[in-house]
């Protein structure tokens, strides 16, 4: 089942969406009003409609949001063809190449050329009303929607308002940055041409993925990172291998290096970067991508009209059902700061919609975790993939995070070296790190790093979420010859320990 336009799944959730009794109660009045129509907001509205409630989606930009048009989907489209060619070249006798222009065209096809007509068709077909404009709280259960023409419409939510406004880029206060035409992640993923020289500031997920994409598309890329390693939230071995992969792709990786100021380079139209630290000096680029993180998008949401304050980074605090205020205001996805990932936001949206429907029926949702109707969102078993080369895929806690949480852990780390990996490509190299909770003998977290390891992740997610005892995993026999045989190697190593 798919909650999506017919052309492709993009970032939609699961479940059928058409409910005949989800009619609007009165003009500008709905059971649920969702501010923000990205994949998280779409899921919140769609699942509310599934429960028999009326819902409206308020959006000032494109329905489908950041993920569909400027983040997850276009970035992976930019990465996929060059990665397929790199994988093919790792086999003897294969000579493969690609056309960068065709990669950009394919990327554009996945965004429907930044036209959201298909998304609107899905939403309206699912029974949700689409309200174009900037949504803002104006009191309890009240939302003001200001359209592009400046006109404001007041909308009332009979049951709940859901904030699903996502996140926005954080721009560092670097002297001269406001005088040059730098890129954010949107400009990078929507680029119409490949710059000859690209500077990337930031070694997080966006910085690493876009540095790799543009290096393979033909840019001469310089990545500047103030810290000693890229992907600082991942296991150290993953950071080390991704750094090696970036260098192998031709990226000039400058760790422990700061960007002190930037300036235009005169008649060339480029930008001069003045760096300090380990790799001090100047670098001239044609484009600069600033990828220094994101923060919850709570600007001008009218939170003060309902007495809601935010954290230091601007997140809206919520309980495990996504409830932020009283019994009517919810916040799901990046805006609550818990797990800023599309799939986790959709998960939160499903739980929040269920809680709204239960409370609308006069019942308090069951707080017990793990049932299909649970009103508790788990945030310890969060899966994430970084689509670099090698890929990084992890779920649950890293070893350091587990120790900070007070767990007594044993860490099992070994090379992924099995028949399946050897057959996949000559010189295939990977590593796995498993964090075991000693007291219960279950996995607290698993990290894979290697080519194509994203497809190993869901098995690890099931093991972590299901808290499957290691003695039970021993009987989950991996097929031969696949890379999944690494599970057997992990268990053997743990037993021998």
From TrEMBL:
<dbReference type="GO" id="GO:0004148">
    <property type="term" value="F:dihydrolipoyl dehydrogenase (NADH) activity"/>
</dbReference>
<dbReference type="InterPro" id="IPR001100">
    <property type="entry name" value="Pyr_nuc-diS_OxRdtase"/>
</dbReference>
<keyword id="KW-0285">Flavoprotein</keyword>
<feature type="binding site">
    <location>
        <position position="293"/>
    </location>
    <ligand>
        <name>NAD(+)</name>
    </ligand>
</feature>
<feature type="binding site">
    <location>
        <position position="76"/>
    </location>
    <ligand>
        <name>FAD</name>
    </ligand>
</feature>
<keyword id="KW-0547">Nucleotide-binding</keyword>
<dbReference type="InterPro" id="IPR016156">
    <property type="entry name" value="FAD/NAD-linked_Rdtase_dimer_sf"/>
</dbReference>
<dbReference type="InterPro" id="IPR023753">
    <property type="entry name" value="FAD/NAD-binding_dom"/>
</dbReference>
<feature type="binding site">
    <location>
        <begin position="202"/>
        <end position="209"/>
    </location>
    <ligand>
        <name>NAD(+)</name>
    </ligand>
</feature>
<dbReference type="InterPro" id="IPR004099">
    <property type="entry name" value="Pyr_nucl-diS_OxRdtase_dimer"/>
</dbReference>
<feature type="domain" description="Pyridine nucleotide-disulphide oxidoreductase dimerisation">
    <location>
        <begin position="382"/>
        <end position="487"/>
    </location>
</feature>
<feature type="binding site">
    <location>
        <begin position="165"/>
        <end position="167"/>
    </location>
    <ligand>
        <name>FAD</name>
    </ligand>
</feature>
<comment type="similarity">
    <text>Belongs to the class-I pyridine nucleotide-disulfide oxidoreductase family.</text>
</comment>
<dbReference type="InterPro" id="IPR050151">
    <property type="entry name" value="Class-I_Pyr_Nuc-Dis_Oxidored"/>
</dbReference>
<feature type="disulfide bond" description="Redox-active">
    <location>
        <begin position="67"/>
        <end position="72"/>
    </location>
</feature>
<protein>
    <submittedName>
        <fullName>Dihydrolipoamide dehydrogenase</fullName>
    </submittedName>
</protein>
<dbReference type="Pfam" id="PF02852">
    <property type="entry name" value="Pyr_redox_dim"/>
</dbReference>
<keyword id="KW-0274">FAD</keyword>
<feature type="binding site">
    <location>
        <position position="135"/>
    </location>
    <ligand>
        <name>FAD</name>
    </ligand>
</feature>
<dbReference type="Pfam" id="PF07992">
    <property type="entry name" value="Pyr_redox_2"/>
</dbReference>
<keyword id="KW-0520">NAD</keyword>
<dbReference type="InterPro" id="IPR036188">
    <property type="entry name" value="FAD/NAD-bd_sf"/>
</dbReference>
<feature type="domain" description="FAD/NAD(P)-binding">
    <location>
        <begin position="30"/>
        <end position="346"/>
    </location>
</feature>
<dbReference type="GO" id="GO:0050660">
    <property type="term" value="F:flavin adenine dinucleotide binding"/>
</dbReference>
<feature type="binding site">
    <location>
        <position position="334"/>
    </location>
    <ligand>
        <name>FAD</name>
    </ligand>
</feature>
<dbReference type="GO" id="GO:0006103">
    <property type="term" value="P:2-oxoglutarate metabolic process"/>
</dbReference>
């Amino acid at each position: 089942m798919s909650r999506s336009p017919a052309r492709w799944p993009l970032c939609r959730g699961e479940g059928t969406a058409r409910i005949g009794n989800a009619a609007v109660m009165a003009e500008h009045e709905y059971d649920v009003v969702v501010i923000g129509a990205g994949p998280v907001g779409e899921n919140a509205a769609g699942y509310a409609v599934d429960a028999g409630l009326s819902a409206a989606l308020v959006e000032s930009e494109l329905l489908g949001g950041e993920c569909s048009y400027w983040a997850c989907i276009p970035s992976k489209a930019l990465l996929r063809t060059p990665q397929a060619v790199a994988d093919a070249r790792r086999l003897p006798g294969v000579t493969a190449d690609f056309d960068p222009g065709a990669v950009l065209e394919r990327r554009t096809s996945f965004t429907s050329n930044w036209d959201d007509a298909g998304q609107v068709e899905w939403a309206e077909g699912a029974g949700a009303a689409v309200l174009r404009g900037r949504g803002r709280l104006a009191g309890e259960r009240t939302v003001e929607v200001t359209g592009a023409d400046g006109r404001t419409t007041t909308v009332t939510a009979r049951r709940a308002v859901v904030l699903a406004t996502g996140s926005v880029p954080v721009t560092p206060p670097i002297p001269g940055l406001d005088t040059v035409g730098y890129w954010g992640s949107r400009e990078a993923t929507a680029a119409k041409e490949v710059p000859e020289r690209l500077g990337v500031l930031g070694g997080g997920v966006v910085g690493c993925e876009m540095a790799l994409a543009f290096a393979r598309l033909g840019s001469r890329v310089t990545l500047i990172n103030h810290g000693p390693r890229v992907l600082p939230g991942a296991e150290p071995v993953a950071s080390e291998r991704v750094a090696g992969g970036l260098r192998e792709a031709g990226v000039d990786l400058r760790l422990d290096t700061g960007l002190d100021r930037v300036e235009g380079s005169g008649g060339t139209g480029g930008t001069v970067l003045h760096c300090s630290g380990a790799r001090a000096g100047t670098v001239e680029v044609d484009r600069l991508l600033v990828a220094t993180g994101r923060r919850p998008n709570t600007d001008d949401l009218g939170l003060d009209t309902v007495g809601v304050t935010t954290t230091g980074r601007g997140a809206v605090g919520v309980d495990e059902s996504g409830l932020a205020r009283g019994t009517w205001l919810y916040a799901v996805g990046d805006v609550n700061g818990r797990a800023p990932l599309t799939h986790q936001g959709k998960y939160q949206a499903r739980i929040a919609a269920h809680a709204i429907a239960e409370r609308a029926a006069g019942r308090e949702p069951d707080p017990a975790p793990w049932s299909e109707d649970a009103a508790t969102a788990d945030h310890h078993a969060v899966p994430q993939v970084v689509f670099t080369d090698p890929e990084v895929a992890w779920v649950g806690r890293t070893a350091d995070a587990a120790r900070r949480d007070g767990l007594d852990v044993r860490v099992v780390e070994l090379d992924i070296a099995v028949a399946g990996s050897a057959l996949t490509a000559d010189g295939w190299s990977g590593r796995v790190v498993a964090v075991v909770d000693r007291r219960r003998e279950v996995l607290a977290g698993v990290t894979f790093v290697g080519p194509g390891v994203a497809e190993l992740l869901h098995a690890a997610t099931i093991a972590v979420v299901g808290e499957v005892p290691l003695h039970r995993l021993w009987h989950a026999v991996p097929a031969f010859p696949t890379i999944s045989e690494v599970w057997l190697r992990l268990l053997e190593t743990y037993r021998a320990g």
